[in-house]
Automatic annotation (TrEMBL):
The keyword Chaperone applies. Belongs to the TBCB family. Residues 170-212 form the CAP-Gly domain. One of its GO terms (cellular component) is nucleus. This is CAP-Gly domain-containing protein. Gene3D superfamilies: CAP Gly-rich-like domain, Phosphatidylinositol 3-kinase Catalytic Subunit, Chain A, domain 1. It is found in: Cytoplasm. Keywords: Chaperone, Cytoplasm. PANTHER family: DYNACTIN 1-RELATED MICROTUBULE-BINDING, TUBULIN-FOLDING COFACTOR B. GO terms for biological process: cytoplasmic microtubule organization; post-chaperonin tubulin folding pathway; tubulin complex assembly. Its main location: cytoplasm. InterPro entries: CAP-Gly_dom_sf, CAP-Gly_domain, TBCB_Ubl, Ubiquitin-like_dom, Ubiquitin-like_domsf. It comes from the Eukaryota.
Length: 234
């Protein structure tokens, strides 16, 4: 059984993914969360949810002397940190724009103005107003990388091995050419197997990545544990 957990930390002004040791006491956790949320430890109320949209918490971390492991905190659960005294730390005010005066134009009024970015782009044929070049037909290259194979991805960091399993090989909608979708053994990726709303394979958040075939080496690569610092953001 792992001695650490990967969890989402959510507060009125922040959201992040963290890895913590299950031997941390709730009091020690609150000290770490103050640096992330800006909420003083004495004002924190921490509830554990199974997911972002879960209506009720699984448990509340009510005893500062208890360890996380005592409460059965598991990977990818959500720690929601509530500020019991927001007036002391201005919690929520950074994201509250209800009191900000706004200058607004309708889309039609904006389109009729000549001193806007939109008008400038139209005059100079920039962005979506640029002349469309004839699209070149690019065939996806054939690569000998079987789906399901173990692999290692080329890394610029010395002695750092990015290992995982090939989950997808082929063309994509986000870029031209052939891409290899990989599920890493550790949460060092960039996605969950989907890009821009298009899913190519299934995996946990931050375990998925897409790379060009020339960066992938297929072989008998066993799973290696990667040590993360407690406070490192994944």
């Amino acid at each position: 059984m792992s001695s650490t957990v990967n969890i989402f930390v959510v507060s009125p002004d922040t959201r992040s993914e963290r890895r913590y040791d299950l031997s941390l006491t709730v009091g020690q956790l609150k000290n770490k969360l103050e640096l992330i949320t800006g909420i003083p430890p004495q004002n924190q109320s921490i509830s554990v949810y199974a997911s972002d949209d879960a209506p009720e918490p699984v448990v509340t971390l009510s005893d500062d002397n208890r360890q996380l492991g005592f409460y059965g905190v598991r990977d990818w659960q959500v720690l929601k940190v509530t500020d019991l005294d927001p007036s002391a730390s201005f919690t929520g005010q950074l994201t509250d724009t209800s009191q900000v005066d706004k200058f607004e134009l309708s889309e039609n009024e904006y389109a009729q103005r000549h001193d806007t970015v939109l008008a400038y782009k139209q005059r100079n044929k920039i962005g979506r107003f640029a002349d469309k070049p004839a699209e070149e037909h690019v065939e996806a290259e054939h690569v000998d990388i079987p789906v399901g194979a173990r692999c290692e991805v080329e890394s610029t960091e010395e002695d750092f091995r990015k290992r995982g399993t090939v989950r997808f090989v082929g063309p994509t909608e986000f870029a031209k050419g052939t891409w290899v979708g990989i599920e890493y053994d550790e949460p060092i990726g960039k996605n969950d197997g989907s890009v821009k709303g298009k899913r190519y394979f299934e995996c946990k958040p931050n375990f998925g990545v897409f790379v060009k075939p020339d960066r992938v080496k297929v072989g008998d690569f066993p799973v290696e544990d990667i040590n993360f610092d407690d406070d490192e953001e994944i």
